[in-house]
Amino acid sequence: MAPKKYIIWGAKGHALVLEEIVRAQGGEVIALFDNSPDANSSLMGIEIHIGLEAYEAWSQKLKGRKDINAIAAIGGASGSDRRNFLELFRKSGFRTPTLVHENAIVSTSARVGENCHVLAGSVISPMAELGEACIINTKASVDHECILGAGVHIAPGATLCGCVQVGENTLIGAGSVVLPRIRIGANVIVGAGSVVTRDIPDRVVAFGNPAKIVKTIL
């Protein structure tokens, strides 16, 4: 059987992680795309196409092919970008699967949206719900009944205790802890190592132990 074919938007570190998952599952990355004219990649032998025009030209040749899988390897606080590329892939007629590392644990009662990345050592517990284009990064934990909006990124080693709600496009920084039943708004950045003990509104940066709002995002 021929390997599943993947394309990745993003040619940096997150692409390395996703390519390894693809390869472990018997797939093959056939092309990389990036907006940066200086983009390069450690994924040797895979051609990098620069810019949206290059993507459009390349994808037009394969438009509607159901055997092409597309993923956006864009980390950090860039959930809205991942979601935009998800829409682009859909318009091209490509498949947009979720990638789950073989060492991740995902409860059978959890619901994981389209084009999410669930990385090594991460845990998604019973009745948790993830919107599309989320990242549950290395050794991150999403406990029971948490609800994550589209484009959320739970960074490496971060922990969401039970029944936490996180709004769309929010980044929970590496090693942070969010206590049970906390609500965090949309387009929020929680700084690395923070402990969130109370609700956080939309469009702010919060940091510290306990986490305090330090900046508004315009």
From TrEMBL:
Residues 7-76 form the PglD N-terminal domain. Substrate binds at G75. CDD domains: LbH_AT_putative. It holds the Pfam family Hexapep_2. InterPro entries: AcTrfase_PglD-like, Hexapep, Hexapep_transf_CS, PglD_N, Trans_hexapeptide_repeat, Trimer_LpxA-like_sf. One of its GO terms (molecular function) is acyltransferase activity. The keyword Cytoplasm does not apply. Acetyl-CoA binds at H153. The active site is at H144. Transmembrane segments: none annotated. Keywords: Acyltransferase, Repeat, Transferase. The record marks E145 as: Increases basicity of active site His. Belongs to the transferase hexapeptide repeat family. This is Sugar O-acyltransferase, sialic acid O-acetyltransferase NeuD family. It comes from Sideroxydans lithotrophicus (strain ES-1). The lineage of its organism: Bacteria, Pseudomonadati, Pseudomonadota, Betaproteobacteria, Nitrosomonadales.
